[in-house]
Amino acid sequence: MENITTTTAAQEDKTLAILVHIGGLFFSWIAPLVLYLVKKDSKEEFTIYHAREALNFQLTLLVVYFACFILSFILIGLFLLWIAMLANLILSIVAAVKASNGVDYRYPMTIRFIKG
Question: Domain residues of the chain, as ranges?
Answer without folding.
Answer: 2-100
